[in-house]
Each structure stands twice: as structure tokens, then as C-alpha cells.
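RECORD TYPE: inverse folding
INPUT: C-alpha cells
STRUCTURE:
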């Protein structure tokens, strides 16, 4: 029987994820990781594998956080326009929460590693597909209930909202205020307004 770990593996992984998120993969050293995680180098290897394996686990943890904190309203069976709005405002809150602004870890990873790391690229694609599917679910419901125009392509709208969410995170990192980010989200939401007499 394997001996229980002498540390909180989930908490240590969370600290590694935070470090990768702030610094990126290449510039984060093993020395920085073991210091941030509060464990020995051997414990890191024994528990998570090498640095690359730890990074993969960290981005999985990040995606799980986004699913819980940002995409949860979209996952409800009856999610519609209100859920889309709640998610947009949730993205703004998510950005403002951190005193030291940061963009999306997966967007950062897509730029840094995905072009030359097939495993990471697959995880990035899976994450973006999950976001797109969540938005598409709410868009389908909103169109069926007449909350938004029915002539828009749901797939195209979902991809647009994924791009909007990532764009907000980038703008947040550049220093945009809550008011500015909220205004951007509201302008982006204009693509979902009902057309015809309902828009008046």
C-alpha cells in the first residue's frame, strides 16, 4: 500500500499553477516550484512527475477552476441570455480579483507552448472546445426562447464569445478598469440582442 503524502497535494498543485500562471512555463524553474509548493524536489518528482507533467496537471487544475467559477451558469440545463450575461460579468470579476493582473493561463500557454508541444496543444484545443460548447448550449436555449435573434449562427456566436472572453482577460492584464471591461463586455453582448421589433 502506498504511504500517504506528508503534504496537501491539491494545495501544492494550486501553488504551482499560480506560479506558472504568473511567470509562464519556460521562466519558471524547479527551484522556484519547490519553494512555492513547499515540498522537496524529490516529493515533486514522486508525486507529479517532471516539470512538464506538473505543468499539465496545473493547467488541468486551471481548467477545472474556470469550469466552476466562470462556466457554471452556462452548464445549467435552462441556461440562456441571463447565464451569458452572468458569465460575462463573471469574467470581469475574475480579472479584477487579482491585484497583479494576468491573462488566461490557457491563452498564455497557447502562445508559449502549443506551437511546438503537441500534448499541450491538445489540452488547449480541448479547453477552447469546452468553452465553445458551454456558450453554444446557452445560445441555443436563448434562441429557442426568443431571447436573442434566431438568424445568428450559434457556432459562430459561440466562437465569438470565446474570443471575447479571452480578449477581456488580455485587456485586463493591460490595466483596463472594471468600468472599461464592463463596457467592453456590454458592447460585445450587442451581437446577442434580439433583432427586429424586439430590439426596440
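DESIGNED SEQUENCE:
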Amino acid at each position: 500500500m502506498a504511504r500517504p503524502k506528508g503534504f496537501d497535494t491539491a494545495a501544492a498543485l494550486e501553488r504551482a499553477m499560480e506560479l506558472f500562471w504568473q511567470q509562464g512555463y519556460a521562466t519558471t524553474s524547479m527551484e522556484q516550484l519547490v519553494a512555492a509548493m513547499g515540498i522537496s524536489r524529490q516529493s515533486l518528482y514522486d508525486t507529479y512527475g517532471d516539470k512538464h507533467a506538473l505543468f499539465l496537471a496545473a493547467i488541468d487544475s486551471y481548467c477545472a477552476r474556470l469550469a466552476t467559477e466562470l462556466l457554471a451558469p452556462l452548464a445549467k440545463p435552462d441556461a440562456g441570455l441571463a447565464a451569458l450575461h452572468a458569465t460575462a460579468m463573471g469574467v470581469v470579476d475574475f480579472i479584477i480579483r487579482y491585484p497583479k493582473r494576468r491573462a488566461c493561463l490557457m491563452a498564455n500557454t497557447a502562445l508559449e507552448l502549443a506551437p511546438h508541444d503537441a500534448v499541450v496543444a491538445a489540452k488547449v484545443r480541448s479547453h477552447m472546445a469546452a468553452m465553445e460548447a458551454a456558450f453554444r448550449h446557452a445560445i441555443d436555449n436563448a434562441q429557442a426562447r426568443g431571447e436573442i435573434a434566431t438568424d445568428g449562427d450559434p457556432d459562430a456566436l459561440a466562437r465569438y464569445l470565446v474570443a471575447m472572453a479571452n480578449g477581456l482577460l488580455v485587456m485586463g492584464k493591460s490595466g483596463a478598469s472594471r468600468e472599461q471591461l464592463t463596457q467592453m463586455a456590454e458592447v460585445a453582448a450587442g451581437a446577442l440582442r434580439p433583432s427586429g421589433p424586439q430590439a426596440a
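NOTES: The radius of gyration is 19 Å.
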